[in-house]
Design goal:
By secondary structure, the protein is α/β, with parallel strands linked by helices. Helix content is 56%, strand content 16%. It has eight helices and six strands, in the order H-E-H-E-E-H-H-E-H-E-H-E-H-H. Strands 3-2-1-4-5-6 form a six-stranded mixed β-sheet, sandwiched between helices. The longest helix is centred in the C-terminal third of the chain and has 30 residues, at 190-219. The chain is globular, with a radius of gyration of 17 Å.
Length: 231
């Protein structure tokens, strides 16, 4: 019975993917973008959380060159805790939010993040989502179904993985594929790569592909890799 159920879920995912492929690639115009920054705040994540806190102001700076950015912080940790902040255009406000949160043990809740994106999209345009994590402890087929729904809403999800967990990579890549986002794994030079990638995603959220193409032409490196995955 489980094999039949998995096969049917796989068919559903392919149907979602076919519909996403039929949609025009979203190219939001220049303006004030809305970006969800979602992070795994379970115990193993403290190092990357601190790194993202140090880097997040660069996102606002780069996005400000092409229009501006509102960011919402979403995180999960502990026993079923998953929270979302208010939207803010202020890097200092986001920094205060992030600095007041400490990682706690718990399981991943990526499904709740994807459901949250659907809810936010119903209230107003969401241009992109960044997700940073190192594990995946949920059913991949269920996550793929949710990712397909998010993809149909035109919200690319950029999945950033720290470490080499094979199950996480498989799931992260599938979420990125179904939402027309991109997948990256951090290496030894994690801080620099994360800085470049978060800035490039922020530029995309604020100004769309035209802004990202211009940013990539000027900066190259990780920004160019991001652009290549999205095309």
């Amino acid at each position: 019975m489980s094999n039949i159920k998995r096969h049917e879920q796989g068919d559903d995912v392919e149907a979602f993917l076919a519909r996403v492929r039929e949609m025009p690639v979203p190219r939001p115009g220049s303006g004030h973008g809305r970006l969800v920054l979602a992070m795994d705040a379970t115990m193993s994540r403290q190092h990357s959380w601190d790194m993202a806190l140090e880097i997040q102001s660069d996102m606002f700076a780069e996005a400000g060159r092409v229009g501006g950015l509102d960011v919402q912080l979403v995180y999960f940790r502990g026993f079923g805790e998953c929270r979302a902040s208010k939207w803010t255009p202020d890097t200092a406000v986001l920094a205060r939010l992030m600095s007041g949160i400490r990682c706690q043990g718990g399981r991943t809740q990526i499904g709740r993040v994807l459901k949250h994106l659907k809810g936010e999209a119903a209230a107003g345009k969401v241009n992109a989502c960044i997700y940073i994590g190192d594990a995946l402890e949920e059913d991949i087929d269920s996550l793929a179904g949710l990712a397909g729904e998010v993809g149909l809403l035109g919200i690319p999800v950029f999945m950033f993985q720290e470490g080499h967990d094979a199950a996480a990579e498989l799931g992260f890549r599938e979420i990125a594929r179904l939402t027309r986002g991109a997948y990256f794994r951090f290496g030894a030079d994690a801080a620099r790569i994360l800085r470049e990638l978060l800035s490039a995603v922020a530029v995309y959220a604020a100004g769309g592909f035209v802004a990202l193409e211009s940013h990539s032409a000027k900066r190259g490196g990780a920004a160019s890799l991001l652009l290549q995955q999205m095309k």
